[in-house]
Amino acid sequence: MPDPLYRQIAEDLRQRIESGELGHGDRLPSELELKERYDASRNTVRDAVKWLTTRGLIQPRPGQGTFVAEKIDPFVTNLTVDPATGRDDDGHVYLAEVTATPRKPTLSDPRVEIQQASGAIAGELRLAEGSTVVSRSQRRYIEEAPWSLRTSFYPMTLVERGALKLIQAINIKEGAAAYLATELGLHQAGYRDKIMVRAPDANDTAFFMMPDDGRVAVFEVLRTAFDDRGLPFRVTVSVYPADRNQFEVSVGSVPRGVAVPGGGAGIGGEALGR
């Protein structure tokens, strides 16, 4: 039994995209042109376009038309890092490792806020609901495209003990873990990651310029850092769109710089602790 006409149209367009006849960023023929080319009804053409859109091959732009989606080269984040630091540097490792791919990274200055801990953050830090925490957020980019969001939460008691840089909207050059070790004698002994996949929220779709229909999921990585007494002192929440990110976990003796199937550079990726 032959495929319905909309699938035949979609398949023909898909082959034209994959062959390069329709290049990434090219404008798709208009609805009227597609109707005439395939001798199809408006609804049939729209069904074909919807099928391609939901598979990320094309992208409608209101008021401009429909375009072949740009090909994304995923960045590989290595979740296996130094337990004593998390390779934590307030973004400097991220800049170095993306540059080594070689690609151009940038990141925003930290946005610092005083908040009341609730939900998972309070639970991970073993704080009572409503306890005061400091949050430090950064937006991270590759080739000027938004790539990840990161927010770290610290108990306010660390600031009260003298870690004043945590409430300053500056990059901590030596890294937050090294700073806390020097300033407070607080040494990171390890960390725990919790990874979930979820639909993007309104903040995600706005920053990452993602479709708001949920067809592109996001990874959310919650990393809790522990001191040498086994007490948590930082929780970092990182959000990564699934269409532009991959992850590595290396166990045992694994050589660095191994190519990663499916794209991206297997050179270590971004550090998660900040």
Short structural summary:
With 274 residues, the protein is of the alpha+beta class. The protein contains 8 helices and 11 strands.
Task: Give an account of the 3D structure.
By secondary structure, the protein is of the alpha+beta class. The protein has two domains: 5-68, Orthogonal Bundle (Arc Repressor Mutant, subunit A); 75-248, Chorismate lyase, CATH 3.40.1410.10. The protein is built from eight helices and eleven strands. The chain has helices at 5-19, 31-38, 42-54, 92-99, 119-125, 156-160, 176-184, 202-208; strands at 58-61, 65-68, 75-78, 105-107, 111-116, 132-142, 145-155, 188-198, 218-227, 232-241, 245-248. The strands form three sheets. Strands 4, 5, 6, 7, 8, 9 and 10 form a seven-stranded antiparallel beta sheet that branches. The radius of gyration is 23 Å and the shape is elongated. The N and C termini lie far apart (56 Å).
Secondary structure elements and their pairing?
Elements: H1 5-19, H2 31-38, H3 42-54, E1 58-61, E2 65-68, E3 75-78, H4 92-99, E4 105-107, E5 111-116, H5 119-125, E6 132-142, E7 145-155, H6 156-160, H7 176-184, E8 188-198, H8 202-208, E9 218-227, E10 232-241, E11 245-248
Parallel strand pairs: 3-11
Antiparallel strand pairs: 1-2, 4-6, 5-6, 6-7, 7-10, 8-9, 9-10
Helix pairs in contact: 1-3, 2-3
